[in-house]
Amino acid sequence: MNKFCTQLFLLGLIVLIVGCGSTKEIVIHTMEPSPVHISQKIRRIGIVNRSELQKAEEDKTGLNRMVAAEEQWLLEQGRNAALTGLFNELLKDNRFETIKILDSVPQENLRFEMGNDSISWTSIENICNTYDVDAIFSMAFFDTETTVSLKKTSMMQPNLMRVKVKVPAQELTLETLIANGWKIYHPKSKEIIDEIVFNDQIISKGKGTNPMEAYKAMEGRKDTLMEQSKITGSNYGQRLLPFKNSVERSYYVRGTINFEQASELVESGDWKGATQLWEKELNNSNSKIAGRACYNLAVMNEIKGDLTSAMDWATKSFKDHNNKEAMEYLDTLNYRSFQNQILEQQVSTR
Questions:
Q1: pLDDT of residue 20
Q2: Is the pLDDT of residue 46 over 70?
Q3: How would residue 54 be classed by pLDDT, with cut points 50, 70 and 90?
Q4: Cβ atoms of residues 188 and 182 within 8 Å
Q5: pLDDT digit string (tens) for 216-262?
């Protein structure tokens, strides 16, 4: 592992002062590969919107009518905000040469196949050929639903003498659910690379002497709805990037005085001193103690970013000293090694 990837793999660590019998826990901050793996051959991206607008109900009156009108506005504007959020995020990704929002694709070309919730591969191939792109990012749907609730309350309001007095009021709560689905189509492999649904909830409250006044008192609601819609698209773009994660590891703090002293050194950040104490126990006549020392050295090497040495020490702890925890830890290290290979590939293409 080169120095650059070691820094990406290991961002740092926090020692938690939490005892658990013969062990304590530490938290290691790592970089994980993106959950969505994009082929290096995909360089040109087309973004399409195949979500369909819901028709507003025309029989609503009063407050419900205003809320329905706002929801219709959100459906129209929120979709564009989400597309913009994704577009802006993909522009930051150096893997891609071209990012296009394909807003001129005929809607009939974006319809789902019969009995399927995906665009046909024939349509995807035609779109890619027409607009010279390698893959299609599709907004599969963008739906909203708002629940209205009212309750009696009170509020302070100036009277004719401009003195604030308590008056009966209504508190209006609007709970808006935004469901946003995305898919990535790769026509050459005829593979849907990724599909996911984001669900967000926005709660707005307002007070007024009547429901309409309470509704008008909700400041910045539309801005909040637009910002959340844009964040949804941005979050999907970030799904293509490596991300920070935290994982817990145990290390032994009991068995001999060296383990106890090493624990204190770990808590003060002196891993070098702790390592020297563990090394003194490698030849302990008690195989259990020696196995614990090997295990701790495996953890220390993982923290340093040296997975090969970590796996060697975990293997020695299990095979030479029959430490069952080391066998489980070795599986974890093998998985981390595999994930790190993917991470290096993703980093090298950026």
A1: 47
A2: yes
A3: low
A4: no
A5: 898 888 899 999 999 999 999 999 988 889 999 999 999 999 999 99
Question: Are 206 and 247 within 8 A, CB to CB?
Answer: no
| Residue 155 pLDDT greater than 90, yes or no | no
Among all chains, which residue has been given the structure tokens 């893959």? 135
CA distance 315 to 282: 14
- The span from the CA of 192 to the CA of 55, in Å, is 29
Percent of the chain with pLDDT over 70: 91
Identify the three-state secondary structure at position 234: helix
Place of tokens 């659910």: 177
Write the CATH number of the domain with boundaries 3-33+243-348.
1.25.40.10
Q: Rounded mean pLDDT of the chain?
A: 88
Q: Based on the number of CB atoms within 10 Å of its own CB, is 86 exposed (0-12), middle (13-18) or buried (19 or more)?
A: buried
**Domain residue spans of the chain:** 3-33+243-348, 44-238
- Hey, is 166 helix, strand or coil? strand
Record the pTM.
0.74
Strand 164-186, strand 135-158: pairing? antiparallel
Q: Give the 3-state secondary structure of residue 73.
A: helix
Ordered DSSP codes for 7-71: HHHEEEEEEEEEEETTEEEEEEEEEE--SSPPPTT--EEEEEE---PPPPPTT--HHHHHHHHHH
Give the C-alpha separation, 8 to 340, whole Å: 10
- In angstroms, the CA 81 to CA 102 distance is 15
Decide: 137 and 46 in contact? Cβ < 8 Å. Answer: yes
Q: Which residue has the higher pLDDT, 205 or 16?
A: 205
What is the architecture, at CATH level 2, of domain 44-238?
2-Layer Sandwich (3.30)
Q: What is the pLDDT of residue 150?
A: 92
CA distance 194 to 312: 36
Six token digits for residue 129: 């050929």
